[in-house]
Amino acid sequence: MDNRDSKSSWMREQWRRYEESQTSVAVIFAGIAALFIAGIAAAFIYAKDTTPMMQTASAPAPAATSTRAAPPIASAPETTGSGGGNQYNPPKQDPRENEQSERPR
Predict the structure, then answer these.
(1) How far apart are the first and last CA of the chain?
(2) Residues 6+ apart with CB under 8 A from 76
(3) Could you give the count of Cα atoms lying within 13 Å of 79 in the half-sphere of its Cβ?
(4) Mean pLDDT of all residues in 3-11
(5) How far is the C-alpha of 81 from the C-alpha of 87, rounded, in Å?
(6) What pLDDT shows up at residue 5?
(7) What distance in Å separates the CA atoms of residue 91 and residue 77, rounded to the nearest whole number?
(8) How much is the pLDDT for 99?
(9) Tens of pLDDT along 52-88?
């Protein structure tokens, strides 16, 4: 009988260790999942806060006959200091971009 009790005690101890290790692994994975979800939420919040504001529908529409002057072109663009210097070439403008404003109404 001594042998049977010692085996039962050993099995209970092994089972307890197994359950504790499974609980620890579950807690670690839950922490990783929480950090992952928090990172995604932070990315969406950052993207929402940094997007330029779009014109709303309640803004008054410009008159059809008004002519606007083009905005002034900056002499040098703002840089982050990553080089470039005075060799700035403005992007080419597609002639079709102004098609809609040039059409007679």
Answers:
(1) 103
(2) 86, 88
(3) 10
(4) 80
(5) 14
(6) 73
(7) 12
(8) 61
(9) 765 555 655 666 565 666 666 656 656 566 555 566 6
Domain extents for the chain?
1-53
User: What pLDDT score was predicted for residue 49?
Assistant: 86
User: Could you give the CA distance from residue 55 to residue 59 in angstroms, rounded to a whole number?
Assistant: 7
HEC-encoded secondary structure of the chain: CHHHHHHHHHHHHHHHHHHHHHHHHHHHHHHHHHHHHHHHHHHHHHHHHHCCCCCCCCCCCCCCCCCCCCCCCCCCCCCCCCCCCCCCCCCCCCHHHHHHHHCCC
Rounded (10°) CA dihedral 37, 53, 77, 84 = 20
pTM of the model: 0.40
Q: Which pLDDT score, from 0 to 100, does residue 50 have?
A: 85
